Every structure is written in structure tokens, then in C-alpha cells.
């Protein structure tokens, strides 16, 4: 993250306030590199590195990301950036001059990269296919580059290591290494440091943990010298030559870390200029850095930028990379590789000494994450909140550490070793029992295990609360700042559970010293009370939420807890509903269990009242049910009895988080919408002749009648599409859909095309998936017919179909199914495929903008 107006920063990224980025102007070119005359004009070795990262956004209680309206039309910013960057780079298009897909490239096979571990966890859950393409990119690059894969590790949750205490510094590195090994199946040679922040203690920690190299900005170097010599060359103004690796020794000179300094000017042009929109411009910009000083020596051209530049900040530029990697760079004789491969062939011959404490996005060391240094200022706002926030969290960290060490010693042989190894459980909860058995000091009871897991989760949140994004921007109350405070609040909750201590009060006093730029919150305490404390979810609140959702047989989406319905009775009383039940609530991460009962009264509309209390035995539970049912003749009596039995504090719709409350509102209004839909449909049918008469005489249709027609036709459209989705073999639905389209055109009605497109998208993708992965010669003709008809229907309805997934599946079908069946075609017929069906399949490819000219030339030699 680059500070606005900083002359000494090297942040090379196009930026937006919705990842870890901000928008800044390009910077002046750095001075000429020191020692440039010694480098060569041998075959250039090109490395482009992408730092792919998003801050963790999951609600610490529900373990899911809440809807973020600013990411619209997507659910949240992870999902939006996935759609704009992570997936497009996994399936990057090489296009012909007519915009048709020639081939699909996995950019991760050629791009040096690191992914934040918490982001990879989200990707693994959200899109396993993209996740596997990322892993495959590393594996395939290793096959191409003598065992050296493109991926490098990252400190676990983007903590600024120079600001972390020694214990946290090592945990962050060890968790990052373990996460990498779990995913990529090898020990990482390199590691990306959050904001490239580094100091001498960080160098020592990296070396001791087995990291061989890191990537830094040119401005972080102080001086250099050839290995074995004594005279230093000053490079503190960013003039270090980035075309070679350097060796940085630990303070005791017992170990060393190799360092690559990215080319600052080219990297900044990638982030802030237009070169990445054109393969030729990108190649020419890299060519401008080549020098013909000395023959025979290989040298490196390397650039680094935020990975989100490629697709999110600069839309569509993943295609530039794909063509550059596969066509332009090889044509120019450049080798595309990665840092570890280059290092294996060209170990450092120069030594570097770093400045004391630096980062790539702050001209004041690491001030951006610890004080009001001026970096990131927007609209005259101050960042005086940064230092008090850091100090408050440091205090909380130390309190949590003391609690952890004191309490965990009763259960674990080595509490801090257990914390470092806890990443094994975070990555695979199935390993929990084996982990506890390995680290326990004696045989643990079920209650002991709950305590140990609470303690370890408390420590996990004490790590997450230092995620760097919380300090990066202009205001504490931004989502990034609120998120780290939510992690702190969850750690405080767990501390109270394990040690019966209340840390919140003093933590809030310390936060009150962090002034907000907004009068609405005043200070950090105000931010916490307004935006953090209401998000904390108790077991009782979760059960009340379940009770309200159960009215519509819905289950709130969550990975943070498991809820088992033991018993439930529901009674309809006039326009009201009374639900009484017992549930067992379990939190998998800590194995906490709660046995609770509830009584939920829905008085109609938005009026809910729900009471929750612990289960105290079957007899008392049955007595409560009898008491409630006895008062069911009167609404007032039911409310009074509920409050008497469960206490005056009840839960209502305001208990739900925004996303779940909005789902409830949709359910609550559905009956009304259904009744209105029936009225509109009847109005349309009763007045169909009148509508046609207005249209025939060229008169404007009254808007009330037009509204009835429009709503009715859209209902029919979606109903027919969904029926076709369920019964895709029946063609009657196609006739009905075309009739609806004609009717809408006659009356001038607007159809809801986006919703219809989603249904047709699913149908088309399902049909294409079968061709790619479940090819059946007997049904091939029928599948082709369906695809042809659905594509024609999309054209007739002018639906905005998403072609990307169809193109990917289509090319997979050609490669895996059609090619093997046609090894000698056109000299010999294809196996299981007629020439007619092959021609129809190629026409389908043309319709979804895939270049199939190579195949068509055999069918039509005259072309």
C-alpha cells in the first residue's frame, strides 16, 4: 500500500479502497542503478510477481462474511475480486482479432505469486476449481523450471512483523510456512512480508525458520558491496541494481537471507500506468530496462505489484499477461521464470545492508501502522488514532498471553509450542484429537479439551487483530478497523470464558484515547460500542435466530456452529404462531455445547418475541410447554407467560444481523406478493382483449393494465424457465417461452432478463459440463440439440448470458472428449461422433465466441 505523495515509497500498485489498496499518483523514476556496467545482455530472465491478498473478513462468531453493499452487485469484496481477478487469471483468454477465444491460459503457471493464507482458505471453500488451478500453476511451473515452483509463502494474516513482538513474529512466519506446506506440498523457499516490512529481528526470524529469500522495494536498501570486500556503496536513494539477488546477513553473521529488489520504475508503471493494457507496451517497457554491457552473463528483470492489479484494478489485463507469457515474451527470446529458479542458477555475489526499519508503502519506516505519520491522509483527516489503537491492542495481546500461559500450563506440556502447531488444526479440524493427544501434559477430560481449544482460539484471534489493514486507511471506523476490533472482542469473550476475567472495560478506556475523524463515533470506544459490540453473538441469540428462521423451514448459513433440533412443537392460534423447542448448539472450533430451550411467538407481520434459556430437565421443559399452551387463548396472556418463564429480555427481528433480517423480510412478504401476483394475473386475463385493442389502435396502454401484463408475463417467464431447468428433456417449455417473448413484444412489456439469464446460465453450463466431463455418445445429439435451442432462446430473449464458463467447458470438451475421438480426422471418421454432429458442435463454439477455425478448415477446405 503506497502513501499518497510519498517521494521515497516504492509501492507499485494500482489501488482501491476495497482491498488492501489506495489510489496514488505515479512516482518519479529512481536514480540509475549502482554497478550497472557489470551486467550483461545475455538472454533476459523475466519475473513478474503478483502479491494476491485480501484481509480476512469473516464474522468471528459465525465464520462467514456478511453482505457488503459497497461490493454490489456481489455479496462481498472477496466475491467481487474473485470474479474480477482470481478466476480470470486462472482462466485467462488469448483472443484473436475478432475477440474470439483461441486458448485459455492459467496465468499462475507463469506468474510468480503469493496468496494470503486466509484468502486461500476462502478460495478453497468458495471455488475449488480456481483453488486447484492456483495449486496446479505452482506444480506445472516446477515441472518447467527444474523443481522450482512459482508460489512463495506469506506471513499468515498480513501482520507488520517489525511491530510484532518476538513470539508473534515467529508464529506468523511458522503459520505461513505450515499453511504453504499444507497446500503446495513443499517447504517454501521464499516468503512475502506484509507491506514488505522488515528489520534485523525479522531477518533473523526468517533465517531461523528456513526461509531462503524475500522480495523488497529498492528504497529499503542502505548500501551494497561485492561479497568478501570491505568497501560499501551507498544506495539509500533507491539506486540499487534490481537485476541481481543480494545476500543480507543476520546481525551475528551466522546466517543470511537472500533478497530480490524489484524494478521500481517498471513496477510503478504496471500499477499506475497503461502499459499493462497492451502486451506490446508491456514488452517494450521491459525491453527498455535491458542493457548490453557485457556478453555472457544472465541477468534478471523483475517486477512486483499487487496481484489484484491484474483484473480488479485494471479490468481485463489478465489477457495481456496470458499473451505476453505464451507468445510475446518467448518470441523475444526472454525466459519467463521465478525467483527461486533464478537463485538456484545465480546465487548472490553481492551483499546488502538494509535500512533499520522499512516498508514499501510508508516513507517513515512503519509509521503507517503505528502513528500519525501523514501517509494515507484523505481530505485533511488525521490518523492520530493509529498509535492509541496499536497501544490498546498491544496491551490486550499481553493480557491474553498471560492468561494463556497461566491457564494452558495446566493442560499442555509446552503452551507456546502448541500455539505454533495449532495451525495444523486450523487447516484441518479433523486433526484436533491427534493434536491434543500430542501436546497434552496428561489425559484431558472433555471439559479440559474445551478449555484448551478456547485458549488456542483466543490466541488465534489475538493474531488476527493485528492484520495490517486496520491501520492502513484514513479512519478507524472503516470496515478494516472494525474488523480487527471484532477479532479483539472475540478474544476478550474467550478470555472471560476461560479465566472469568473482564478485559473489555480497560480495553475500552484505552480505545477512548484513539480519536475518530467522525463526530458520530468520537473515538475508538465509540466505534467499538456502535459497530463491534452489537455484532457479538451469544448462544441464546443464535437459538432465537434459529427459532425465527424455523417458521419458514430455513436455516441460517454458518460454518461457525452446529445446531441440532431435539424437539419442536408449533401451534397456529388465529393469526399468530407459537413455536416451542429444544436445541443442542455446538461450536466445532472449541467443542463448546449448549442445551437450550426456546419459545417463539410470531404475532404476525414483523412482530416476533422469542425467549431462550438453558434446558433444565425434561420435566421442567414439559411444564413450560403446558403453561404456554394454556395461555394460548389470549395474545396478551401468551406474551406475559413467555416473559414470566424466560425473563423480560426477549429477541425480535432486530436481533438478526442485516443479511439474515433481510432474508426474513423476503419470506414475510412472500405471501403478500403471491396474493398480489394472483390478482395481477387475473386482471391481465380479464383485460387481455382490451390490452390488444389498445395496442392495435396505436394507443398507449394504461399503466395499471401494463403493470399487470408485465408482472404476469415475468412470472410466466421465470416459471417456464424453472420448469425447463427441472425437466430439460421436455421441449414444450421452449414453445411456451417463445410465446411469452412474442406476447411481451406485442404489448411493449419489459422482461426481467437478468433473473431469467441466471436460470438459462445454469442450464447451459450443466449441458456443457456433461459434454466436457460426462460425454455419452448415445445422448450426444440430444445434448447438442438442447444447447442449440438454449443458445437460440438466449439470443431471442436478448439475455446477458455469461460466456466465460461455457467457453472454458467447451474447450475442455474439445481437448478431453472430441480430440481423442478424432485422432486421424479428417482422413478418418471420428469415433462415436458423426460428421453432422461434429459440425453442429463447432457451430456451437462459434456462437459462444470460441475460435474453431482450425477444425472448420477441414470441414470447408475452400475457406
Features:
13% strand, 7-stranded beta/alpha barrel, globular, four-stranded antiparallel β-sheet, six-stranded parallel β-sheet, 30 helices, Nuclear Transport Factor 2, Chain: A, 863 residues, disordered N terminus, 5 domains, 18 strands, alpha/beta
Please explain how this structure is put together.
- The chain is an alpha/beta fold and 863 residues long.
- The protein folds into five domains: 45-366, 7-stranded beta/alpha barrel (Alpha-Beta Barrel), CATH 3.20.110.20; 377-535, no CATH class; 539-649, Nuclear Transport Factor 2, Chain: A (Roll), CATH 3.10.450; 656-751, no CATH class; 754-863, no CATH class.
- Strands 1, 4, 5, 6, 12 and 13 form a six-stranded parallel beta sheet that branches. A four-stranded antiparallel beta sheet has the order 15-16-17-18. A three-stranded mixed beta sheet has the order 7-11-10.
- It is globular.
Task: Give a quick summary of the entry.
The chain is of the alpha/beta class and 863 residues long.
What's the topology here?
Blueprint: E1 45-52, H1 77-90, E2 92-95, E3 101-105, E4 112-115, H2 117-126, H3 128-144, E5 151-154, H4 166-184, E6 191-192, H5 200-208, E7 213-216, E8 221-226, E9 233-234, E10 246-249, E11 256-261, H6 264-272, H7 279-287, E12 300-306, H8 318-331, E13 335-336, H9 339-345, E14 350-354, H10 386-408, H11 415-421, H12 423-427, H13 432-439, H14 446-464, H15 469-472, H16 479-499, H17 504-511, H18 524-532, H19 539-550, E15 562-573, E16 576-587, E17 592-604, E18 607-614, H20 618-630, H21 635-646, H22 658-686, H23 688-696, H24 703-726, H25 732-747, H26 753-773, H27 780-797, H28 803-821, H29 835-847, H30 853-859
Parallel strand pairs: 1-4, 1-12, 1-13, 4-5, 5-6, 7-11
Antiparallel strand pairs: 2-3, 8-9, 8-14, 10-11, 15-16, 16-17, 17-18
Amino acid at each position: 500500500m503506497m502513501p499518497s505523495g510519498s517521494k521515497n515509497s516504492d509501492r507499485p500498485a494500482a489501488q482501491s479502497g476495497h482491498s488492501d489498496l489506495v489510489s496514488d499518483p505515479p512516482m518519479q523514476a529512481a536514480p540509475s542503478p549502482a554497478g550497472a556496467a557489470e551486467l550483461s545482455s545475455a538472454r533476459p530472465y523475466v519475473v513478474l510477481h503478483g502479491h494476491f491478498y485480501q484481509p480476512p473478513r469473516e464474522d468471528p462468531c459465525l465464520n462467514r462474511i456478511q453482505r457488503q453493499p459497497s461490493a454490489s452487485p456481489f455479496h462481498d469484496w472477496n466475491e467481487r475480486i474473485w470474479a474480477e481477478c482470481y478466476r480470470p487469471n486462472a482462466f485467462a483468454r488469448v483472443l484473436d482479432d475478432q475477440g474470439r477465444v483461441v486458448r485459455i491460459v492459467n496465468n499462475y503457471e507463469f506468474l510468480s505469486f503469493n496468496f494470503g493464507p486466509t484468502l486461500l482458505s476462502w478460495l478453497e471453500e468458495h471455488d475449488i476449481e480456481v483453488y486447484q488451478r492456483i495449486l496446479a500453476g505452482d506444480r506445472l511451473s516446477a515441472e518447467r523450471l527444474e523443481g522450482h515452483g512459482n508460489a512463495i509463502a506469506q506471513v499468515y494474516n498480513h501482520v507488520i512483523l517489525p511491530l510484532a513482538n518476538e513470539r508473534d513474529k515467529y508464529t506468523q512466519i511458522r503459520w505461513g510456512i505450515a499453511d504453504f506446506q499444507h497446500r503446495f506440498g513443499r517447504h517454501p523457499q521464499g516468503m512475502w512480508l506484509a507491506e514488505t516490512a522488515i528489520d534485523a529481528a525479522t531477518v533473523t526470524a526468517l533465517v531461523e525458520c528456513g526461509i531462503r529469500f524475500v522480495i523488497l522495494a529498492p528504497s529499503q536498501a542502505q548500501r551494497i558491496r561485492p561479497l568478501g570486500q570491505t568497501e560499501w556503496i551507498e544506495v539509500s536513494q533507491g539506486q540499487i541494481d534490481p537485476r541481481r539477488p543480494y545476500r543480507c546477513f543476520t546481525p551475528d553473521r551466522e546466517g543470511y537471507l537472500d533478497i530480490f529488489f524489484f524494478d521500481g520504475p517498471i513496477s510503478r508503471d504496471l500499477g499506475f500506468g497503461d502499459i499493462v493494457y497492451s502486451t506490446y507496451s508491456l514488452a517494450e517497457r521491459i525491453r527498455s530496462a535491458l542493457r548490453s554491457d557485457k556478453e555472457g552473463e544472465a541477468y534478471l528483470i523483475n517486477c512486483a505489484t499487487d496481484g489484484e492489479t491484474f483484473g480488479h484494478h485494471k479490468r481485463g489485463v489478465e489477457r495481456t499477461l496470458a499473451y505476453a507469457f505464451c507468445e510475446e515474451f518467448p518470441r523475444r527470446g526472454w525466459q519467463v521464470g521465478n525467483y527461486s529458479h533464478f537463485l538456484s542458477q545465480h546465487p548472490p555475489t553481492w551483499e546488502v545492508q538494509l535500512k533499520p526499519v522499512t516498508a514499501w508503502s510508508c516513507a517513515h519506516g512503519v509509521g503507517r501502522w503505528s502513528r500519525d505519520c501523514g501517509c494515507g491522509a484523505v481530505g485533511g483527516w488525521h490518523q492520530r488514532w493509529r498509535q492509541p489503537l496499536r497501544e490498546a491492542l498491544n496491551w490486550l495481546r499481553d493480557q491474553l498471553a498471560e492468561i494463556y500461559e497461566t491457564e494452558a500450563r495446566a493442560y499442555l506440556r509446552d503452551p507456546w509450542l502448541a500455539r505454533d502447531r495449532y495451525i495444523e488444526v486450523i487447516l484441518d479440524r479433523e486433526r484436533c484429537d491427534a493434536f491434543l493427544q500430542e501436546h497434552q501434559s496428561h489425559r484431558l477430560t472433555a471439559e479440559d479439551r474445551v478449555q484448551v481449544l478456547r485458549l488456542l482460539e483466543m490466541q488465534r484471534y489475538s493474531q488476527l487483530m493485528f492484520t495490517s489493514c486496520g491501520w492502513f486507511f484514513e479512519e478507524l471506523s472503516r470496515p478494516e478497523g472494525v474488523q480487527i476490533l471484532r477479532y479483539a472482542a472475540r478474544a476478550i469473550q474467550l478470555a472471560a470464558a476461560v479465566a472469568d476475567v473482564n478485559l473489555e472495560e480497560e480495553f475500552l478506556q484505552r480505545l477512548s484515547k484513539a480519536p475518530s475523524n467522525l463526530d458520530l463515533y468520537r473515538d475508538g470506544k465509540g466505534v467499538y460500542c456502535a459497530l463491534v459490540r452489537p455484532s457479538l453473538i451469544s448462544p441464546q441469540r443464535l437459538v432465537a435466530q434459529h427459532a425465527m428462521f424455523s417458521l419458514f423451514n430455513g436455516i441460517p448459513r454458518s460454518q461457525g456452529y452446529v445446531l441440532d433440533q431435539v424437539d419442536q412443537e408449533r401451534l397456529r392460534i388465529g393469526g399468530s404462531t407459537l413455536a416451542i423447542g429444544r436445541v443442542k448448539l455446538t461450536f466445532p472450533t472449541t467443542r463448546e455445547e449448549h442445551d437450550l430451550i426456546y419459545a417463539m411467538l410470531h404475532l404476525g407481520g414483523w412482530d416476533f418475541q422469542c425467549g431462550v434459556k438453558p434446558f433444565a430437565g425434561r420435566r421442567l421443559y414439559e411444564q413450560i410447554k403446558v403453561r404456554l399452551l394454556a395461555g394460548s387463548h389470549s395474545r396478551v396472556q401468551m406474551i406475559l407467560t413467555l416473559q414470566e418463564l424466560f425473563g423480560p429480555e426477549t429477541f425480535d427481528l432486530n436481533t438478526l444481523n442485516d443479511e439474515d433480517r433481510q432474508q426474513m423480510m423476503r419470506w414475510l412478504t412472500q405471501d403478500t406478493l403471491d396474493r398480489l401476483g394472483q390478482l395481477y394475473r387475473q386482471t391481465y386475463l380479464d383485460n387481455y382483449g382490451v390490452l390488444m385493442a389498445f395496442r392495435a389502435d396505436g394507443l398507449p396502454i394504461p399503466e395499471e393494465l401494463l403493470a399487470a401484463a408485465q408482472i404476469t408475463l415475468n412470472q410466466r417467464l421465470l416459471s417456464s424457465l424453472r420448469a425447463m431447468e427441472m425437466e430439460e428433456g421436455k421441449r414444450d417449455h421452449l414453445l411456451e417461452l417463445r410465446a411469452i417473448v412474442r406476447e411481451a413484444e406485442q404489448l411493449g412489456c419489459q422482461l426481467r432478463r437478468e433473473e431469467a439469464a441466471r436460470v438459462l446460465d445454469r442450464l447451459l453450463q450443466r449441458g456443457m459440463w456433461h459434454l466436457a466431463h460426462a460425454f455419452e455418445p448415445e445422448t450426444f445429439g440430444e445434448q447438442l440439440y438442447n444447447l442449440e435451442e438454449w443458445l437460440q432462446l438466449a439470443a431471442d430473449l436478448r439475455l446477458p448470458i455469461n460466456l466465460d464458463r461455457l467457453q472454458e467447458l467447451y474447450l475442455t470438451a474439445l481437448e478431453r472428449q472430441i480430440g481423442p475421438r478424432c485422432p486421424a480426422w479428417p482422413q478418418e471418421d471420428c469415433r462415436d461422433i458423426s460428421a453432422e454432429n461434429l459440425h453442429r458442435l463447432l457451430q456451437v463454439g462459434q456462437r459462444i465466441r470460441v475460435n474453431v477455425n482450425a477444425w472448420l478448415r477441414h470441414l470447408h477446405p475452400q475457406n
